[in-house]
Structures are given as structure tokens and as C-alpha cells.
Write the C-alpha cells for this entry.
Amino acid sequence: MAEKPSDPTRKTPKERENERDARLKKALRANLARRKAQARARKGRQDEQD
């Protein structure tokens, strides 16, 4: 009986974990950038009011 070729679309648990880690890192970086931008905007408004 011939062996079936492995499905190239299937990922190993390690590959899935690496992809998840990369996705989380990207989301955290985007969140941090958004929070910094909000803080700068708030600081700019406070400086204008003073």
C-alpha cells in the first residue's frame, strides 16, 4: 500500500504556536502604538488649554 503524501496545508502544533505568537506580538505592538498616539493627543489638548 502506498503512503499518502502529507497535507501541506496542515500545520504542526509548533508552527501554529509560532503563528499565534507572531499574531499576538503584532496586535500588542499596534495596541501600544494606538495608546501612545492617544496619550500624545491628550497631552497636546492639555497643553493648548493651559
Summary: The two ends are 82 Å apart (CA to CA).
